[in-house]
Design goal:
Number of helices: 16
Radius of gyration: 22 Å
Shape: globular
Order of helices and strands: HHHHHHHHHHHHHHHH
Distance between the termini: 44 Å
Largest sheet: none
Helix content: over 70%
């Protein structure tokens, strides 16, 4: 529970941080209220930390009793275990952010990137409101629960991912915005067309009408398409780049995000999305393999890409030093190789689990006995996790390595003060 909640909170921090950086940049104006953004940051951080401490130190039933779950029952559902005050705090922080960014957007230049990003963020906030709706009927409960979880990760989050990826690629390749805009429109159209009705692949076996099997099979089979388009988009932008940007690490993260997102959300999602396959694989280690690679490839990597691009600029330089970027690139490969090892082991373990536990009509292996047969896969998965952690530490280390900034023919801005959006545009546009 702590692991999955921290995953969501970390990504929300990343999306909001990226939006606070990108919208003023795209709008060619200053943020409407920096003070409001800082206040919301600390509220979100403190609320998240207190919630995690509550999970670890207080029995969950008692935590629910202390936090008003009897008044409005919202707790106990996977990914949405947060107490009522935390959920209310998330709504307040999200609405304050949207007010701040929308006001910034309205007073400045309107671009496709900022428009798509704001649509994604508004959708994220509005869909989260269903976390407060917990009907007594378990079938309806699960249906609306997926409106938060699925329509986040396979709906509006894809809009956020596309806009972040497009922003980094425009800044690092110099490709015309008109070209990027056309790609974005096609990608988000495919994402929403397939993702909304693709929710049906979660409706197979929860008590909803049987036609959802047909709808889920058809539309969830189309969900890899927008991720494949992101791969084509990223590689085409780099292939037709008009500049060799000094920050090659950020370019690598952007391209890696497109590839790993397609593998995790597209390929590994398709592996068990059809109802007659999902009947055997649902809830096995194959599900865990898909979840880890999809969240990391599509969303964690795009956040790390925007951090890689923006962090040097926020510190007054066009790019980190060559030594710093080499360390970051080593971190990139260590993380991705570690994640691939984890996912392959989880996939192999899941196949064996299905073979032992789900397929036999008679004499199927009991759950715990099947888990005992997967020890090799779990130990190898642990090795992949250690390698991933080493890569993450290298990534963080790269930002504190000094040296002369890598150059692209222009002198980077010196000094420790944060450059304004206008100054950053002069540096890079």
């Amino acid at each position: 529970m702590v692991h999955t909640n921290l995953l969501i909170v970390w990504l929300l921090f990343g999306f909001m941080g990226a939006a606070y950086y990108m919208v003023p940049e795209e709008s060619e104006t200053e943020l409407y209220s920096p003070k409001l953004a800082l206040v919301m940051f600390w509220i979100f951080l403190v609320a998240g930390a207190l919630t995690i401490m509550g999970y670890l130190l207080v029995p969950y039933a008692r935590l629910a009793q202390f936090t008003g779950n009897d008044l409005l029952a919202t707790m106990g559902r996977e990914f949405l275990e947060q107490p009522l005050p935390t959920k209310a705090g998330i709504v307040v922080v999200a609405l304050a952010m949207l007010f701040n960014l929308t006001m910034t957007y309205l007073k400045g230049r309107k671009t496709t990137i900022s428009s798509v990003l704001l649509c994604g963020l508004w959708g994220l906030a509005l869909l989260f409101l269903f976390s407060f709706f917990n009907p007594e009927n378990l079938v309806r409960d699960k249906m609306y629960w997926w409106w938060v979880v699925h329509l986040w990760v396979e709906g509006v989050w894809e809009l956020i991912m596309a806009s972040l990826l497009a922003f980094v690629l425009i800044k690092t390749t110099g490709v015309d915005r008109e070209v990027v805009d056309k790609w974005i429109y096609v990608i988000i159209a495919c994402a929403l067309f397939s993702g909304i009705l693709g929710t049906g692949h979660h409706y197979y076996f929860i008590g909803l009408p049987g036609y959802w099997k047909l709808v889920g099979n058809v539309f969830s089979s189309l969900e890899p398409i927008p991720f494949f388009l992101m791969v084509l988009f990223a590689f085409r932008m780099v292939q037709h780049r008009r500049r060799e940007h000094a920050n090659q690490a950020a370019v690598l993260w952007a391209m890696g995000c497109a590839v790993m997102g397609f593998l995790g959300a597209g390929v590994w999602g398709f592996l068990h999305t059809l109802s007659f396959v999902n009947y055997y694989t649902h809830g096995t280690q194959i599900t865990a393999a898909h979840g880890h690679l999809a969240f990391y490839g599509a969303y964690a990597m795009v956040v790390m890409a925007i951090i890689s691009y923006a962090m040097p600029l926020l510190r007054g330089r066009a790019a980190n030093s060559r030594a710093s970027q080499r360390t970051e690139i080593w971190g990139f490969w260590a993380q991705n190789i570690g994640m691939c090892l984890m996912v392959l082991m989880l996939t192999g373990g899941g196949i064996k689990q299905v073979w032992l536990q789900r397929i036999p009509s008679e004499g199927a292996t009991a759950f715990m006995n099947a888990q005992d047969a997967l020890h090799f896969f779990y130990w190898a998965r642990l090795a992949g996790g250690v390698l991933f952690l080493a890569g993450l530490l290298l990534y963080l280390l790269s930002f504190i390595i000094g040296g002369e900034p890598a150059k692209e023919g222009e002198a980077p801005r010196q000094g420790g003060a944060m450059p304004s959006p206008a100054q950053r545009r002069l540096q890079h546009d």
